[in-house]
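Input sequence (297 aa), recorded before submission:
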Amino acid sequence: MISIIDNRMQLDSIELGIDRSHQAIRIRFLHPGRPVITTRFLEDLQTAQDLMATLCKQDQALPSAERLRYLVMSSRLPGVYCLGGDLGLFLELIRSGDRERLTAYAHTCMEIAHRNLSGGDNKLCTISLVEGETLGGGFEMALAADVVIAEKRARFGFPETQFGLFPGMGAFSFLARRISPALAKRLITSGNIYTAAELYEMGVVDLLADDGKGEEMLHHYIKRRQSREGGYFAVDKIMAEHSPISRAELFRIVDLWVDTAMELPEKNLTMMNYLLKAQSKRWERNEEIATVSKLRA
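Predicted structure, token format:
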């Protein structure tokens, strides 16, 4: 039996919790460094997914109404969900010509996304709760869910086209399941930052919450589903049947992403490095502000 002390287990970069009242597994991103998708972050997510599979298997002995039915992904870092892929790692691997490691990173991302998208072996309803900024791979991670809940302060975007790449971890496939392919292409290639309200109107975000009310809306949504469970889960299955996203499709796209990344000219890598530095400076300022606030408190 897996033992999670006080319904919570903390890994290096994420926290795994159990909320029995809502039949939910909670994964909260801790982001101990820059809030990006590091290899350690991916390893922790894989560990969490394996633990979830075992927990759900153990749950089969419980009555149906008591089993875990939901997976909720959110962040504990105020104002940030996830800022995307690890640009520093990308630069290192592309410049050194290390296709093997870049491919391994990309494939791991896709394995995790596809496992979340399908709900795992127990077909959990997956929910992304976005309360802050989410970019690139972070946006894709949020989209790999049945339901996206976002607070109005949340901001979304795909900056990859600025340095000659594209969001290759499922963005187009996930978006085209929610909106038209033409609109998905426009959203990806625009390079714009979108508000949660704008994406709600497009149909990308399912539920729009006032700032600070995301958790409340999440709980309300799950409670509503619990009272009408059969219909909700059936609609999720119909959507998956109508707009299937296969593992093979995702891996073909991510391999194209690797090919494109490995061919980036130096001018594009220079732009990627510029964005990395801007991201790092911004994060350092945020940490300085947080440190000062703690000292004053």
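Checked by second reader. The first helix runs from residue 39 to 58.
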